[in-house]
Fold:
Amino acid sequence: MGILDFLKRKPEPSAGIAKERLRIIVAQERSTRGAPDYLPLLRSELLEVIKKYVHVDLDAISINVERDSGHEVLELSVALPDGKSGS
Amino acid sequence: MTAEIIVVTSGKGGVGKTTTSASFATGLAMSGKKVAVIDFDVGLRNLDLIMGCERRVVYDFVNVVHGEATLKQALIKDKRYENLYVLAASQTRDKDALTQEGVEKVLQGLSEDGFDYVVCDSPAGIEKGAHLAMYFADRAVVVVNPEVSSVRDSDRILGLLASKTRRAERGDGAIVQHLLLTRYNPARVAAGEMLSVSDVEEILGIKVVGVIPESENVLAASNAGVPVILDADSQVGQAYSDTVARVLGEERPLRFLDAPKKGFFQRVFGG
Ligand SMILES: Nc1ncnc2c1ncn2[C@@H]1O[C@H](COP(=O)(O)OP(=O)(O)O)[C@@H](O)[C@H]1O
Ligand SMILES: [Mg+2]
Structure:
């Protein structure tokens, strides 16, 4: 590559990457919006407890705060790996 | 008749809130409305410079809140439009100088003085200052740049506007939210280097009320202390005028979204 090419070199098109990253993080942040600040910690401590019984990743635990007519419901769901449900 | 409170906010700093507040307030005043624009950035007064009235600041927002000056004494009349007034931020380092009751009292006073619009220039962040700037708003202009951290922050701000304002708390009907995309560079968008208008709209799930191009006219206007909307020959000035008209209910198509055609020299030598 000549020196002129170097001077003229443009950044790689990266808008697509930006858009994809934003789509994911915005969706994630919206799902816990308005939720108590302790949720992330609660989520990781729950993971420790669950791990004593069954192996799951942090991704398997989802937390939602639902609000309707004055009530707030903390909704936790844990996706168990195949074949581990029941006893 | 009560004044309509419009907050210009963003979360992230340096995206163009103060530039937008100055042009927006001026644009509203140009349409004949009586307008006050308030700098909520306690400790970092800036709006006075952008409006070109920095040497006429005697009393500020905090003085009025603390009863050390009347509204009348603190409001600085714009030298171009007699129906436009600026209320400067205090340079105090005490971040608690503003209180919710104090802000409410000032806004109430402006309403009683017959103001049609009060534009609140929010500080960056989501702390107290930004909260106070948005709390009483009827309408919000969320300024966003086509850049990842700004887009993410504006999503958080949209969430706060929908839940942490007086309207939301009282169930008075939602605050009207406008998304304003600024510092847009069509050439970089065309090259795939920058998020496009539709990318930002899709991610945030809200249409833009305007697109302000990135332009050197903004620096020139701030150097001169003239809100850039008054640079009527510039694309930025026209884009701001369009935006104000849209917020006032007019329908105008978006302009300046396409990259300028490259000239002969650029085609030959790149750039
Ligand atoms: N459309 C634009 N084109 C170029 N520069 C801009 C534009 N809008 C704002 N700026 C510049 O960006 C900087 C930050 O703008 P400002 O309005 O002070 O942002 P904020 O109030 O959000 O911190 C300033 O130097 C300003 O001149
Ligand atoms: Mg500012």
